[in-house]
């Protein structure tokens, strides 16, 4: 489902510092959107607004044409720190999400679905009974992704989900999310926060770069289907390389503005 943001400004309650100012965003159903920008520029804040955890100070924020009022299972969230309850097993964490979303479905059927989801994210059935502390970071994030895709929200908000992972695990999970997103007939709309230009170019169909203080959109780039790249072709496409240079230059310019 699409998101339309018009002239949005935002300050956290009890403060008068503007974090976001005159922000405009237009995202269509099924797009994979990456939010790029320097640390502290307001990417997570924007995600919290779309999640319904904060409300705009002024301006318009519409989800599927309607204003957002509070959090909803229509918009799943995946955090960098996995967001798993430490006292529940991995399987129970995934099951909890399914029970909340599908309260009328038989528990045994939901449990079966948890095993299917574990398999879909490349985890052994034995993981069901493990506590999060017994799992590696990559395994925990696979569980969080299984939970998010299991809930089957039309929109997924991912806040630097791979930021704490090593490069190899990160690459595997990028491929996993892309393949889960790509194989769905009705694709989820994904908002994915990252600092990493190459990650954004690999994953997204649409990139927004946010500038700092207060944050606003400094670049809005859609990646046409014919220029979608894979890990192996990432550096072959001239159009993508030009876009990469543009993104890196804008990011550097934004850092320089801040330093001066
Ligand atoms: N609850 C809060 N109350 C007041 N200010 C906040 C709150 N949360 C974040 N901020 C401020 O809002 C600004 C934007 O923070 P935000 O976490 O959205 O940035 P970010 O781009 O996601 O950063 P990073 O990439 O480092 O995660 C920062 O200056 C931060 O200090």
TrEMBL record:
GO MF annotation, one: ATP binding
Record's keyword annotation contains Ribonucleoprotein: no
Gene3D superfamilies: P-loop containing nucleotide triphosphate hydrolases
One Pfam family matching this protein: ABC_tran
Annotated keywords: ATP-binding, Nucleotide-binding, Transport
Domain ABC transporter stretches: 3-237
Domain of life: Bacteria
UniProt KW Transmembrane keyword: no
Annotated PROSITE patterns: ABC_TRANSPORTER_2
Transmembrane stretches, start-end: none
Protein name (Swiss-Prot/TrEMBL): ABC transporter ATP-binding protein
Organism ancestry: Bacteria, Bacillati, Actinomycetota, Coriobacteriia, Coriobacteriales
């Amino acid at each position: 489902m699409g998101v339309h943001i018009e002239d949005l400004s935002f300050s956290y309650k009890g403060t008068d510092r503007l974090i976001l100012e005159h922000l405009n965003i237009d995202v269509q159903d099924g797009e994979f959107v990456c939010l790029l920008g320097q640390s502290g520029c307001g990417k997570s804040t924007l995600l919290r607004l779309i999640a319904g955890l904060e409300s705009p100070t002024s301006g318009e924020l519409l989800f599927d044409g309607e204003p957002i009022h509070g959090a909803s299972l229509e918009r799943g969230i995946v955090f960098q720190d996995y967001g798993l309850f430490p006292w529940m097993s991995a399987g129970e964490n995934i099951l909890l999400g399914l029970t909340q979303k599908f309260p009328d479905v038989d528990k045994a059927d939901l449990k079966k679905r948890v095993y299917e989801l574990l398999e879909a994210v490349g985890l052994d059935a034995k993981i069901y009974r493990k506590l999060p502390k017994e799992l590696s970071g990559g395994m925990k994030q696979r569980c969080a992704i299984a939970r998010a895709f299991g809930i089957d929200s039309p929109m997924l908000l991912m806040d630097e989900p791979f930021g704490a992972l090593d490069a190899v695990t990160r690459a595997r999970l990028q491929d996993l999310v892309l393949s889960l997103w790509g194989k769905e007939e009705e694709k989820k709309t994904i908002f994915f926060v990252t600092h990493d230009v190459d990650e954004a170019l690999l994953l997204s169909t649409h990139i927004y770069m946010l500038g700092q203080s207060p944050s606003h959109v400094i670049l809005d780039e859609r990646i046409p289907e014919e220029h979608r790249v894979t890990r192996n072709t990432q550096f072959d496409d001239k159009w993508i390389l030009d876009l990469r240079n543009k993104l890196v230059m804008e990011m550097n310019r934004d850092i320089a503005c801040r330093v001066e």
